[in-house]
Design goal:
Strand content: 5-15%
Structural class: alpha/beta
Number of strands: 5
Order of helices and strands: HHHHHHHHHHHHHHHHHEHEHEHEE
Strand order of the largest sheet: 2-1-3-5-4
Helix content: 55-70%
Number of helices: 20
């Protein structure tokens, strides 16, 4: 322990052990919501999987976990949780190359309690792996850059190749590292050719993986349309500067949990200035290059720009640069230590507090697991199952996991009519004409829509059961 760095050597390890205990604490408690259930149905073998839509090794691993341990929430969410913990540890190691223990711990904490990573670490999603492989690729590259030995080269290439099976964003990291390294280094002709050959081989491997498994993703109209506002508006050049600024602000603010995008950008700029004479300047330049490559890829609608969960691959770098920015304030401003603490408290503490609470008690979303079990246990063939369209993936997963045949013959879908909930009247009239009891399972819809359905049902049915959990509500109606 020194005056320059008051944090004891054991403190980061102790903090990580505590984090490793907290992260899995609630991992299997909430039921799968819409997107998770959509994936879980593939891994459980209930539906066919569109392999282009998720990284291939991630999907293969999840399928194997479901086969070996059963399709439980804990088993299927375990890999993202471990990946997030690994990303936090590697980010700390990466930060330590240019920051003290105290400021490296700040960078790792910004990542660990940043809303996107913490959220995706507790869901059946692959995005936490993006952050893990970013930190791993950068660390492996920096070690090879220090000493370009064959052993370190093999480690770097191996990490890159493995990443293509788990992360879509890793290609931006590799390309940014190669570009900035080539631009700023004084290579001999032999070294330049060797480095270019290495990255050409890595790029070829990525192309083979992409065209073998994911080529249909860019042609999926649903995926392209979903991110319309996140593709570069190159046909209207006057919109590009504002669009770019918004996307960068989202990355800086959301990935670190900052409450102000402009303040996060200012800290990132200060961090870049502070790091310009250290190794972190290379890392910062690569962050800028990765952002530029991502923005360029968004022009032909290959990869959106600024989307929270799709930008998690930038989170480790962003956290480190912003930590450099807070350190800059401490070193350059009167009463700098007080100012740095105040900035950290005002910008990051509110979000971190909310996220820490979620570790202990996760927010209930579409909590339908118990509802589906009750329907399966208590309903009869003479009753109608009226299930919201967006609840169907989770309903199918839990229905089949309970040993039921899907689809049940008495299943009726409740359409998604969020903008015009009154149009549900036609559905309710048809249910009433059938003269059968109805189990209504509604979730993933605004309260105005579910309340409208309940009011319409009450006009034609007697209400015999009501239960809710999070965004989900289960009702039973008997015909009059």
């Amino acid at each position: 322990m020194t005056a320059r760095d008051p944090l004891p050597r054991w403190a980061p390890a102790a903090a990580f052990v505590l984090l490793a205990a907290l992260y899995p604490w609630t991992l299997g408690r909430p039921s799968f919501w819409l997107d998770e259930a959509w994936e879980a149905n593939y891994y459980a073998g209930f539906t066919a999987a569109p392999w282009y839509n998720r990284p291939m090794l991630y999907m293969a691993h999840s399928r194997a976990m479901a086969s070996v341990f059963g399709p439980s929430e804990f088993a299927l969410r375990l890999l993202p949780c471990l990946a997030a913990l690994g990303a936090v540890a590697l980010t700390y190691r990466l930060a330590r190359r240019s920051l003290s223990r105290t400021w490296s711990l700040l960078a790792a904490s910004l990542l660990a309690f940043g809303p996107p990573l913490l959220r995706e670490a507790h869901q059946l999603k692959h995005y936490a792996l993006d952050a893990l492989f970013t930190a791993g690729i950068v660390l492996a590259f920096l070690r090879w850059r220090e000493s370009r030995t064959s052993r370190r080269l093999l480690v770097y290439v191996g990490v890159c190749l493995l990443s293509f099976g788990f992360s879509f964003g890793s290609i931006f990291i590799v390309a940014a590292l190669a570009a900035v390294d080539a631009w700023g280094s004084r290579f001999s002709r032999h070294e330049l050719m060797r480095t270019a050959g290495v990255h050409a081989g890595i790029a070829t491997a990525f192309a083979l993986v992409f065209f073998a498994f994911h080529r249909d993703g860019g042609r999926d109209p649903l995926l392209v349309a979903y991110f319309t506002n996140e593709y570069l508006p190159w046909r209207t050049p006057q919109r590009v500067p504002v669009w770019l600024a918004r996307g960068v602000a989202v990355v800086c603010a959301k990935q670190t949990g900052a409450s102000s995008g402009l303040a996060a950008l200012a800290l990132a700029a200060a961090g870049w200035w502070s790091a310009r004479r250290s190794e972190a300047s290379f890392v910062t330049a690569c962050l800028a290059a990765a952002l530029a490559l991502n923005a360029a890829a968004s022009a032909p609608a290959l990869y959106p720009f600024g989307v929270e969960r799709l930008s998690i691959y930038l989170a480790p770098w962003t956290a480190i640069v912003v930590a450099h920015g807070v350190l800059f304030v401490r070193d350059r401003v009167p009463l700098g230590a007080v100012a740095a603490i105040a900035i950290a408290a005002l910008l990051f503490a509110p979000s971190a507090g909310v996220q820490a609470a979620h570790l202990l008690r996760p927010p209930l979303r579409e909590e339908i697991r118990a509802f589906v079990h009750r329907i399966g246990r208590e309903s009869t063939d003479g009753e109608t199952l009226f299930v919201a369209e967006d609840a169907l993936p989770a309903f199918q997963f839990y229905w089949q996991r309970n040993g039921k045949t899907y689809p049940p013959s008495n299943l009726v879908l409740c359409a998604r009519l969020r903008q015009e909930p009154g149009r549900h009247r036609d559905e309710v009239e048809r249910l009433a004409e059938a003269r059968r009891p109805v189990w209504s399972l509604l979730t993933h819809m605004p309260d105005t829509e579910s309340d409208t359905i309940a009011r319409l049902m009450a006009e034609r049915f007697d209400h015999t059961l009501a239960s809710s959990a999070g965004d989900a509500r289960l009702d039973r109606w008997s015909p009059r």
